[in-house]
Design goal:
Family: Belongs to the trimethylamine methyltransferase family.
GO molecular function: methyltransferase activity
Shape: globular
Oligomer: single chain
Protein name: Methyltransferase
Strand content: 5-15%
Structural class: alpha/beta
Radius of gyration: 24 Å
Number of strands: 20
Pfam families: MTTB
Distance between the termini: 34 Å
Low-confidence stretches: 1-22
Largest sheet: 7 strands, parallel
Helix content: 40-55%
Mean pLDDT: 94
Number of helices: 19
EC number: 2.1.1.-
């Protein structure tokens, strides 16, 4: 903004009230990022943690990581790394010194400060599906390339559901928008259709700088206010095995310098891009992640970093990636132990290999989501809407996943494990005694509306009741809800002057050509 001062955001009105209620189509749980009250599952012994840590350190010291970004290479050279060609080797003392500078917990504050989230500690955050190039819904009935309209509809679901706490990458790639300006259109849609924390793809200078500027404008912030606290984040993937590419490290370093959120998630598929053993795959993944965190901390000590895990396995018969497997679950839990060893927040994912929102989709996703819970994950990517190993986004799957996410949120409600006199309920037990029931007791009457989780999608009628109501299977019920939510969706409020400034920035950057592409 010309005067460098922050504008006040307009709130209230019909749209504001709808946003606070969470919409009228379903009765959903309130915005309340859950606190994980369970002890994490820790399959590794103390010796096991030490063995994987030492494995990661030896990879960094002796084998090395290829760094394909010349600027990052020079920074590592300045830091005293041993460099041969583009392979960087770093001593464990340096790595641990840098990692120790990263905070164990930080906040991300979007344009609506009421949607601020805490990353780290025991907070459990869920994000939407990100980056599939294809789309499937029951009305189309086949896999098709993503469009901007499909992307906008999935963003509306991202905003609508209170159990989705941050907006990840594009929920489906709108391939009908040219790649040079795609980030401008999608970020404009994300910032106007949602008020949750934003993500930037680290794919070159222009995309990262444009997204940071758009987030700043949307928040009505001066440059100083934007830099003063994390407002957004990026996620980068190493090119496994043992390599970081040019564009992702470029964006990583740009956001590090401005103190924004940084998530590094090696995508290590055991048996293909990593050793077939889970311990070996986790050790490699940690080495690839820790070197990026060390780079960020050397550039800007104390900048917020998250270590991610995306360690799964391939089908050794076909080579296809598999998700939600026992191996995936254990790798996630093991990485959680190591993340706590390093004092870093952890990111994991809610994923599956299924092609449509069927039983396989839900058991694999449920496995991966509960592995995230058990591991003590703080950010769970792809928590709603993911199919075909990340190649398809589906609104029906999105809504079905949100039922699981709400159940996890309810599972973490401390009231379920409260043990006060009211919870032990001896007076009610005494009143009912050996002959009677609890339906009519005052204890039940005082609590029946909130005592148990109430689903918005599950159907608890018996077979005859379900059949009489049309015999509608779960994905079809989800499809009907999707159509209702989109039809009744109201975007969160935004000051009109800010909206105009945002649109003007997009128009100017399009005139300038947007971001360079390889085609």
């Amino acid at each position: 903004m010309a005067d460098g001062t922050a504008r006040k955001r307009r709130a209230g009105g019909r749209a504001g009230n709808a946003a606070r209620r969470g919409g009228l189509v379903i009765e959903q749980m309130a915005w309340n990022p859950p606190i994980n009250i369970d002890r994490p599952v820790e399959p590794l012994t103390e010796e096991g943690v030490a063995a994987i840590h030492l494995g990661a350190m030896e990879i960094l010291e002796d084998i090395g990581i290829a760094i394909l970004n010349p600027e990052a290479l020079e920074i590592f050279r300045e830091a005293g790394a041993r460099i041969e060609g583009d392979v960087v080797r770093l001593g464990r003392d340096f790595i641990m010194e840098m990692v120790a500078k990263a905070p164990s917990q930080f906040t991300l504050t979007p344009r609506n400060a009421e949607r601020q989230i805490t990353v780290g500690g025991q907070t459990l955050l869920f994000g939407n599906v990100s980056s599939p190039p294809n789309y499937w819904d029951m009305e189309i009935g086949k896999k098709v390339p993503g469009t901007r309209e499909m992307c906008r509809n999935l963003l509306k679901l991202t905003q609508y559901f209170n159990c989705i706490h941050f907006a990840g990458g594009y929920p489906v790639e709108p391939v009908d928008v040219h790649a040079s300006v795609r980030h401008l259109d999608v970020l404009y849609d994300k910032l106007t259709l949602t008020d949750k924390v934003m993500h930037a793809y680290s794919l070159g200078k222009e995309r990262v700088e444009d997204v940071m500027e758009m987030v700043r404008i949307a928040g009505g912030l001066s440059h100083e206010e934007f830099d003063a606290t994390p407002r957004m984040y990026t996620n980068i993937n190493s090119t496994s095995p043992l390599k970081h590419d040019y564009p992702m490290l470029d964006g990583w370093m740009r956001l590090a310098r401005r103190g924004q959120g940084l998530v590094v998630t090696p995508f290590t598929l055991a048996g293909a891009m990593a050793p077939v053993t889970m311990a070996g795959a986790v050790a490699q993944s940690l080495a690839e992640g820790l070197i990026a965190i060390a780079l960020a901390q050397y550039i800007n000590p104390g900048c917020p970093c998250v270590i991610g895990t995306f360690t799964s396995n391939v089908d050794m018969k076909s080579g296809a990636p598999a998700f939600g497997t026992p191996e995936y679950m254990r790798a996630t839990q093991m990485t959680g132990q190591l993340a706590r060893f390093y004092g870093l927040p952890i990111r994991s994912s809610g994923v599956c290999a299924a092609n449509v929102p069927d039983g396989q989709a839900m058991w694999e996703t449920s496995n991966s989501l509960w592995a995230a819970v058990q591991s003590g994950s703080n950010m769970v990517y792809h928590a709603a809407g993911w199919l075909e190993g990340g190649l398809i986004a589906s609104p029906e799957k999105f809504i079905m996943d949100c039922e699981i996410l709400q159940q996890i949120q309810r599972y973490m409600d401390p009231s379920l494990v409260a043990t006060g006199p009211d919870e032990i309920a001896l007076d009610a037990i005494r009143a009912v005694g050996n002959d009677g029931h609890f339906f009519g007791t005052q204890h039940t009457q005082d609590r029946y509306t909130t005592a148990f989780y109430q689903p918005f999608l599950s159907d608890w009628k018996n077979f005859e009741g379900w059949e009489a109501a049309g015999a509608i299977w779960t994905p079809e019920r989800a499809h009907h809800l999707f159509k209702q939510i989109i039809a009744e969706f109201e975007a969160p409020p935004m000051d009109e002057a800010i909206r105009e400034e945002l649109a003007a920035f997009v128009a100017r950057r399009k005139e300038e050509g947007g971001a360079p592409t390889d085609f």
